[in-house]
Design goal:
Layout: E1 2-9, E2 15-19, E3 22-23, H1 30-35, H2 37-55, E4 64-65, E5 72-75, E6 78-89, E7 95-102, E8 106-114, E9 121-128, E10 132-143, H3 151-154, E11 157-166, E12 177-198, E13 201-211, E14 213-219, E15 233-238, E16 243-248, H4 254-261, E17 266-267, H5 280-286, H6 289-305, E18 316-330, H7 337-356, H8 382-387, H9 391-399, E19 404-408, E20 415-419, H10 462-475, E21 487-488, E22 491-492, H11 497-501, H12 503-506
Helix pairs in contact: 2-6
Transmembrane segments: 333-356
Keywords: Membrane, Transmembrane, Transmembrane helix
Region (Disordered): 428-461
Length: 507
């Protein structure tokens, strides 16, 4: 059995993440601009700021909530309106056409680059008598359905551009090196799956993208005229998810608006001193266009999904599940046999011990146990020797006359058990003919009387036993016994009356 942890569902909390089933822009909302011009302008500036920050890699993520004490949150598969972007290096597919027009004071050389999709981009070189103006970057914006109904709002938007890397010889500006590119923005649906997060942030965010197709149908707001295309939602359909999604008329032009922010020119660029022409033009000339495209896609998608902060008045939160860590015990059931077997064997052993020792007396507080070890002051294991052939019952009778006490050693470092015999021990009748004159202990001048089985001696009280011991010890103390004791008025005293009367002599 060992403690493990697992993730349990948190019942009283719900995880949430932003998604967009409908899109109604804040930045281009005509009603907001008319009712609250400052608020509407603020939303537009906030959108521009988010796009600029995202272009350089500072991307605002989707809004989500994974409340503590949850340690992990998950969401089921869901779909959301998104922006899809792609970058294509078209250097080998563009068609270049340079034409020079001569004027009285200058020559104008215009190089036009025709792309597979979208409008052409131009580069212009102006040559004066004293100097030459070179254009290092040229871009153009267009869409697939230019001029059609809803046009750029429902079709792919293109940002075509040319970046000159080397203009070549001063006298021949038609021999130069360049890089042509196309950035395409389009509406799509993102299907998210296996999305996980923690309170600290989103951990996995896997998705697949599929095109969003205009269904050529509009849905009116409540109490509005469906023929009013500005006030209506326009319906789109996803073949991959088989769902319908709606966007307001002004929301459709978000992509073309963003492409328009990057339509820039860079003239008289000094490669040795970058930064002379600040802003998006310089950034667009130097940046990695592939990373720029990916950053724009992520930034626009999150602005569409998020409500606050974000650009979608109709943003919603998709519910998920929150999990927390729970400790539990994992039982390895085969190992349970071990403690069960140990308990059974212990019970059996206890039963066998009880059966074999049921007729034996219990030691309890009896000094019987002391007879199995030689006490200090005895030269041999006398009592154990006498026990042989007489049984435990005889030994227990002998133990009744044994008293012991705890005393310190000479060095006062330990305590030993010493015999304190209060009565003469009764000798056991030895079946092996032991000598009746054997002394019970060293230093004790006592001779045990012969054992008789006719009359049982009366048990003496503790006062009688102590008095006998005092009398015996006074005879062997070496100070003359009673004759060495000073008496006064028939009672033993330590000091006579004459000494007491002259205590100063003592002092």
């Amino acid at each position: 059995m060992e403690p493990l942890t697992r993730q349990a569902l948190l019942r009283n909390a719900t995880a949430q993440i932003s998604k967009a089933g409908n899109y109604s822009t804040k930045a281009f909302n005509l009603v907001n601009l008319m009712v609250d011009p400052i608020g509407g302008a603020t939303n537009l500036l906030r959108l521009q700021t988010m796009v600029s920050s995202g272009a350089v890699g500072s991307i605002q993520g989707p809004t989500f909530s994974c409340p503590e004490p949850a340690v992990k949150c998950t969401w089921d598969e869901f779909d959301t309106i998104a922006a899809c972007a792609s970058y294509t290096n078209t250097t080998n597919t563009v068609e270049e056409d340079c034409q020079t027009t001569r004027h009285d004071t200058y020559d104008n050389t215009t190089c036009t680059f025709t792309f597979p999709e979208g409008k052409p981009a131009d580069l212009i070189v102006l040559r004066y008598a004293n100097n030459t103006q070179l254009q290092w970057l040229g871009t153009s914006q267009s869409c697939a359905l230019e001029g059609a109904y809803l046009g750029c709002g429902i079709s792919p938007n293109f940002l075509n551009g040319v970046r000159v890397t080397d203009w070549g010889q001063v006298d021949d500006y038609e021999m130069f090196s360049y890089e042509a590119f196309t950035i395409t923005l389009n509406w799509c649906i993102r299907t998210y799956h296996s999305v996980t997060a923690s309170p600290a942030g989103i951990q996995t965010l896997n998705y697949t993208s599929s095109p969003l197709v205009y269904s050529n149908r509009s849905i009116a707001f409540p109490d509005t005229d469906p023929s009013n295309i500005i006030a209506a939602y326009h319906e789109f359909y996803s073949n991959a998810s088989a769902q319908y999604f709606n966007m307001t008329f002004r929301s459709l032009f978000l992509l073309s608006y963003v492409n328009g922010l990057f339509v820039r020119e860079l003239n008289n660029h000094d490669a040795q001193n970058p930064g002379l022409n600040s802003g998006l033009s310089e950034f667009l000339y130097y940046t990695d266009l592939s990373n720029l495209t990916a950053n724009l896609e992520e930034t626009l998608t999150n602005q569409i999904r998020n409500s606050s902060p974000g650009d979608n008045l109709d943003g919603e939160m998709w519910p998920g599940q929150a999990f927390y860590q729970e400790t539990y015990w994992h039982v390895h059931w085969p190992w349970v046999v071990l403690p069960i077997a140990e308990a059974v064997i212990t019970i059996i052993l206890l039963g066998v011990t009880i059966i074999f020792s049921r007729k034996q007396p219990l030691f309890k507080s009896s000094p019987l146990a002391l007879l199995f070890h030689p006490l200090e002051g005895y030269k041999e294991k006398r009592f154990v020797h006498e026990m042989q052939g007489n049984g435990v019952s005889k030994l227990q009778d002998l133990a009744k006359d044994i008293r012991v006490e705890f005393k310190e050693d000479e060095d006062a470092c330990s305590v030993r058990i010493k015999p304190f015999i209060t009565t003469l021990p009764r000798r056991l009748t030895s079946t092996r003919g032991k000598s009746q004159n054997q002394s019970p202990a060293k230093g004790h001048d006592v001779t045990p009387p012969p054992e008789t089985h006719q009359t049982k001696p009366e048990k003496k009280t503790m006062e009688q036993l102590d008095e006998e011991l005092r009398l015996k010890m006074s005879g062997i103390a070496g100070d003359g016994g009673e004759s060495g004791v000073e008496y006064e008025d028939g009672k033993p005293v330590a000091m006579k009356r004459s000494v007491k009367d002259n205590m100063f002599r003592y002092i």
